[in-house]
Design goal:
Order of helices and strands of chain A: HEHEHEHEHEHEHEHHHEH
Distance between the termini of chain A: 28 Å
CATH architecture of the largest domain in chain B: 3-Layer(aba) Sandwich
Number of helices of chain A: 11
Oligomer: heterodimer
Number of helices of chain B: 9
Helix content of chain A: 40-55%
CATH superfamily of the largest domain in chain B: Response regulator
CATH architecture of chain A: Alpha-Beta Barrel
Low-confidence stretches of chain A: none
Distance between the termini of chain B: 28 Å
Number of domains of chain B: 2
CATH class of chain A: Alpha Beta
Number of domains of chain A: 1
Shape of chain B: elongated
Largest interface: A-B, 34 and 29 residues
Radius of gyration of chain A: 18 Å
CATH class of the largest domain in chain B: Alpha Beta
Radius of gyration of chain B: 21 Å
Helix content of chain B: 25-40%
Largest sheet of chain A: 8 strands, parallel, barrel
Shape of chain A: globular
CATH topology of chain A: TIM Barrel
Strand order of the largest sheet of chain A: 1-2-3-4-5-6-7-8
Low-confidence stretches of chain B: none
Number of strands of chain A: 8
Largest sheet of chain B: 4 strands, parallel
Chain lengths: 295, 217
């Protein structure tokens, strides 16, 4: 079965994905609210997998919920918490419940999360997880055994266009494409001229690229990301622009900036779509899309 | 030369481990813990004074030349009387030494240090873990730098997204192994090696606990 998201990628339209983060606990009300709000506006919704190594409701459960509510989930899978046995098993389950899209990630270190003494697994890495999916599609598991019923996924990965140094990341990106990535959702990009150079390079590969857009909520948040988040670089002009917003209007400014960036990416046909991350502010994603002329 | 790198255990932990054990014999090591200043003569002497102040009776102490050596049992015989008087042996060698001593089987041993890794002194006072003895060496393809050890996540196919200015996401003091490997391979004109896909590692190259027998033993 070809997933709705894969069809969107193949259609040539400007694809929009966003993400929802499962809660810490069993109260799913707010999570469900975000899914309901976004499911008909975007082409697919990523469900994060213990984002930042913080223990939460599982991405697999979250993806099922997206499905039940009538949305199109992209199951995020990191290699941090599960070995190859558990990862393959979860892929079997996902396929059996018509979860058709997977984003393969290495995962942050457990040291960055809220269970700092946990064992980080990393039995596989993101490129190996992609290759595993392609192997399982051929009806085999990593142990070389035949599967009673194969899987089928639209599988993707991430890349960091602002990494320093960049070339090792690009080599890894090429490995991911070779391992079977059909789509890439990038780490947040803000300097679109830089991103354009990345796309000039990336366009030669048979993979769809969705530019990562993280909503800026304040100048302080932008500075925090520059200092603490690997591979994210907010240019000074944008920080100044955020700082110029009148008191209480920074979020509005952030939405405006996002909208402007998405509009440019789309108008200049720079990439195949965007992945909007509004970390903690999912309810404003429709406003971002309106500002971008997407709604 | 490789060394066993150790760090002193927190005082409260040692206090807890020694609870109810009034008479203590202290054993240091003249090799690794002397180098790392965690169990040489000065540290053993300081521990003796420290525990005495806490009301412990120190029946004796010794800094063995090499605590993990097979001669340790013999060396301790010279202190048999003082050891006999003790309730516990407080060991200021690494865990190799502590276990060698424990195998003598006569007394409870309590380590005073945590053994961190087998490492190399990269520069004076700085120790790095460069090999975890995994049993499936791949450094022939990574410019002689081990990503299984030097990368926090043990990644074998290139960097994760956590590289920041060539440093690791867990600590700006730690190099990103894949930045080092990239630079080395680039210098050698062998960047193509980085493009090679490595299949999932065999984590049972030598199942834990390792055991090896010489041919014809």
């Amino acid at each position: 079965m070809v997933s709705a998201f894969k069809k969107a990628l193949q259609s040539g339209k400007f694809v929009v994905t966003s993400e929802v983060g499962p809660p810490k606990g069993t109260n799913l009300d707010r999570f469900k609210h975000h899914i309901e709000l976004l499911k008909d506006k975007v082409d697919a919704l990523n469900v994060t997998d213990h984002q930042s190594s913080v223990m939460r409701y599982p991405s697999l459960g979250g993806a099922l919920l997206v499905k039940e509510i009538g949305g199109e989930p992209i199951l995020q899978m990191t290699c941090r918490d599960r070995n190859r046995i558990a990862l393959q098993s979860d892929l079997l389950f996902a396929h059996s419940r018509d979860i058709c899209n997977v984003l393969c990630l290495t995962g942050d270190s457990v040291i960055l999360g809220d269970h700092k003494e946990a064992k980080g697994v990393f039995d596989l890495d993101s490129s190996q997880l992609l290759a595993t999916i392609r192997l399982m599609e051929k009806g085999k598991d990593l142990g070389g055994n035949a599967l009673e019923g194969p899987v089928s996924f639209c599988a993707g990965a991430i890349v960091t266009p602002e990494a320093d140094p960049l070339e090792p990341q690009l080599i890894k990106f090429e490995k991911k494409v070779e391992a079977g990535a059909e789509f890439i959702q990038t780490q947040a990009v803000y300097d679109l001229d830089n991103f354009k150079s990345f796309m000039d390079y990336a366009k030669q590969f048979p993979v769809k690229i969705l530019a990562g857009i993280i909503l800026l909520t304040s100048a302080a948040m932008a500075r925090f990301m520059n200092k603490n988040v690997a591979g994210v670089r907010v240019p000074q002009e944008l920080i100044d622009e955020m700082a110029s917003a009148p008191k209480g209007r920074a979020l509005e400014k952030g939405i405006q900036i996002c909208g402007r960036m998405i509009r440019r990416l789309r108008e200049e046909r720079m990439c195949d779509g965007v992945h909007i991350m509004a970390i903690g502010k999912e309810e404003v994603v429709p406003e971002i899309m309106s500002a971008a002329g997407l709604l | 030369m490789i060394r066993s790198i150790t760090r002193p255990k927190p005082e409260q932990e040692i206090d807890r481990l020694l609870e109810g054990l009034g008479r203590v014999f202290i054993i240091g090591c003249g090799t690794c813990t002397t180098l790392t200043r965690t169990g040489g003569e000065p540290e053993v002497s300081e521990m003796r004074n420290h525990l005495t102040r806490k009301g412990k009776m120190i029946t004796g102490d010794v800094v063995l030349p090499v605590a993990c050596d097979n001669l340790t049992g013999q060396a301790l015989k010279d202190y048999a009387d003082q050891i006999r008087l003790a309730d516990v042996l407080l060991i200021m060698s690494c865990a190799f030494g502590a276990q060698t001593i424990a195998r003598q089987g006569k007394k409870i041993v309590v380590p005073a240090v945590d053994t961190l890794f087998i490492g190399k002194e990269s520069s004076v006072g700085l120790f790095d873990e460069i090999c975890t003895q995994c049993g499936t060496c791949i450094i022939g393809e990574t410019g002689g730098i081990c990503p299984v050890t030097s990368c926090h996540k043990g990644m074998v196919n290139g960097p994760c997204g956590g590289t920041k200015n060539g440093k690791c996401e867990i600590d700006p003091m730690r190099d990103c192994a894949w930045t080092l490997i990239y630079n080395r391979l680039k210098d050698l004109g062998r960047l193509d090696a980085m493009r090679k896909y490595h299949k999932p590692r065999n984590h049972q190259g030598e199942p834990m606990p390792g055991k090896w027998m010489l041919a014809g033993r």
